[in-house]
Amino acid sequence: MNGIYLDHAATTPVHPEVARVYAELLTSMYGNASSIHGAGRAARKLLDDSRASVAGLIGARPEEIIFTGGGTESDNFAIFGTAEARADEGRHIITTGIEHHAVLNACKRLEKRGFEVTWLPVDQEGRVSPDDVRKALRDDTILVTIMAANNEVGTIQPIREIGEILKGHSATFHTDAVQAFGEIPVNVGEIGIDLLSASAHKINGPKGIGFLYQKNGTKLVPPTAGGEQERKRRAGTENVPGIAAFAKAAEIAHESLSERDERHEVFKQMMTGALEDSGIAFSVNAGRAKTLPNILNLSFPGTDIESLLVNLDLAGVYVSSGSACTAGSIDPSHVLVSMYGDGAEQLRNSVRFSFGYGISEEDIRTAAEKTASVVRRLAGQ
Question: What's the structural domain count of the chain?
């Protein structure tokens, strides 16, 4: 692919080692993991090994991992499954205004079904206050769903502190870790998480594969009816090659986590430093927060999103204005609205740069030069 791909928060290229595993298994591991013959048993072993592998990376037990079709399904499974399982105990849910649309729209749908949702605010760094969570808790709160890290500005949320608060409450604690898994360490036992969502395509794995961690004893109603796969929790024949590829991608991501974090922090400093040297005006959204190392969200005064994205694309720099799930939408980023309020200039001129596999320092220098040139022209600087 020509151009510099700096949209790894949207999706990532498949790692060559992962692609090799995936391609080999597509033809060699064709048995149904529910079959009792040799081909089925071989598929079952690979499925069990993959489950144990990803479970170990988050401090979970293998039986607590449910493989799904991706992050959105995992989020929906957690939210709708909890609502249905616990509706007789209460109908109150707590979340934030900066969640991914897989969580936002699921909660909005539950509102239409008679559930009450408390939408917590965030500060200008995109961070939710644990004290706000504490204040919002009620006797009838059945679910608290707060992301581990934001996919647009990268802010890492205080889920450990929130987990401590919820230890004294019966509410189920779900975290959307799709952007965080493989980028920062997450241990479900240490944090006190009941449900956690993750996805393969964010960590150089294939698209269409994810998992939901369900702590033993956590109530959850399966979203579909069918066979007894995934311990009767997610019907449908398992995608064994995709699951094994996910496990390989997760293994690589966690083994290289520290090294990648250091490299991506260097990329951030290189990018902002080069833009400062160029003399153009810009600011870093969530610049004072602890953020994911691979996400850098910048505001360029005097420009607008559409022109920025089109001109950067023409210059061969592939970035986005936020969540890829809203590509083409004329609505402002709900994350930036939550951070800055309606009408803020950041809503009209912010771009997300996100780093990952295959990016070099030379790519960052070139991207910064081209970005400065585009911004200077559009803003008349």
Answer: 2
Residue at a domain's end among 224, 255, 286: 255
For residue 330, pLDDT beyond 80? no
HEC letters along 97-152: CCCCHHHHHHHHHHHHCCCEEEEECCCCCCCCCHHHHHHHCCCCEEEEECCCECCC
Domain boundary among 215, 240, 255: 255
Task: Give the three-class secondary structure for 240.
Answer: helix
User: Residues with catalytic annotation?
Assistant: 325
Residue 22: alpha-carbon gap to chain centroid = 22
Same domain, 106 and 46: yes
Provide mean pLDDT across the span 194-200: 98
Q: What is the mean pLDDT of the chain?
A: 95
Q: How many residues does the chain have?
A: 381
How much is the CA Rg of the chain, to the nearest whole Å? 21
**Could you tell me the residue range of the domain that residue 197 belongs to?**
16-255
Tokens for 303?
């420009």
How far, in Å, are 20, 99, 257, 379 from residue 17 at the CA level?
Answer: 5, 32, 16, 43
Q: What is the pTM of this model?
A: 0.96
Determine the Cα–Cα distance for residues 298 and 112; give it in Å rounded to an integer.
Answer: 36
Amino acid at 70: G
Alpha-carbon distance of 222 to 61, in angstroms, equals: 19
